[in-house]
TrEMBL record:
This is VWCE protein. It is found in: Secreted. It comes from Nothocercus nigrocapillus. The keyword Signal applies. Pfam families: VWC, VWC2L_2nd. Its main location: secreted. Keywords: Glycoprotein, Secreted, Signal.
């Protein structure tokens, strides 16, 4: 029956049956649940696996595995790869490295007096050295300008003064148009000259500022603005009559000068025969 073994005179080393599988004498295997089993004298003996670790920060057992691994490090809940170099969360410039499941950390040596360098000041509580420059004393990190020169900026860094010119933007105009104004640190492009008029076509026709003209349509008037642009506006004709006279060069039809009838112009109170019926007489009345 499974789980039992009956020694046979023909077999010097009895075998074991476990979960329907035959195991040889002395065989070892792992069962689910991290059980270590062995076949001994025809009996199956199982016990929880023993996982001795030789490192201080082993990685948890991978999925399907039983024992933690020293091929990496687990530090403050973060898995680190073998050889990974990292800093601690609390800063202080401490650098750690993961080697064979162990974490080794190195902290900088902090002097008790002034800091020898700015990098040491970022890691230690020492006081950075002050700067003495042109008769003035500046704290570490202070920024200042040279006497009478606002275009140069200086900074005190652990007892040493570093000065640099103010950065200037790149100009998109030719060099002969560069201009340095009073009190300015950087060149600037000269302002373009103010427009003296408006160019309205490709023939070089220019209208002076304030000039009003019609571009060909008598109902449209244009004016040359002070900035060199052209502004145009159309005239709306509000006076209408059935037979107005269209005067050449004038925008709106004229209802007070006479009548236009069948292509002919008649003055006010003028009578004329009807073209459609010669027995009818018509008269032009301006209203």
């Amino acid at each position: 029956a499974p789980g039992t073994s009956v020694p046979s005179p023909a077999l010097p080393d009895p075998r074991c049956w476990h979960q329907g599988v035959s195991r040889e004498q002395g065989a070892r295997w792992t069962e689910p649940g991290c059980l270590s089993c062995t076949c001994h004298g025809g009996r199956v003996l199982c016990e929880p696996m023993s996982c001795p670790t030789s490192c201080s920060h082993p990685l948890p057992a991978p999925e399907g595995g039983c024992c933690p691994s020293c091929s990496g490090c687990l530090h403050e809940g973060v898995a680190r790869a073998e050889g990974d170099v990292f800093s601690l969360l609390d800063g202080n410039c401490t650098v750690c490295v993961c080697l064979a499941g162990n974490i080794s950390c190195i902290s900088p040596e902090c002097p008790s007096g002034p800091c020898p360098s700015s990098s040491t000041a970022d890691c230690c509580s020492c006081q950075p050295a002050k700067c003495s420059f042109h008769g003035h004393t500046y704290m570490h990190g202070a920024q200042f300008s040279l006497d009478g020169d606002d275009c140069t900026t200086c900074v005190c860094r652990s007892g040493e003064v570093e000065c640099s010119f103010a950065p200037c933007p790149a100009l998109d105009c030719p060099q002969h148009e560069w201009h340095l104004g009073p009190g300015q640190c950087c060149f600037a492009c000269r302002d373009p000259p103010a427009p003296s008029g408006c160019f309205v076509d490709d023939n070089g026709v220019e209208f002076p500022v304030g000039q009003i003209w019609s571009p060909g349509d008598p109902c449209e008037l244009c004016i040359c603005q002070a900035d060199g642009s052209v502004s145009c506006k159309r005239t709306d004709c509000v006076e209408t009559c059935p037979y107005p006279i269209q005067i050449p060069g004038q925008c709106c039809p004229d209802c007070s000068a006479g009548c236009t009838y069948m292509g002919r112009i008649f003055y006010n109170n003028e009578t004329f025969p009807s073209v459609l019926d010669p027995c009818l007489s018509c008269i032009c009345l301006v209203r």
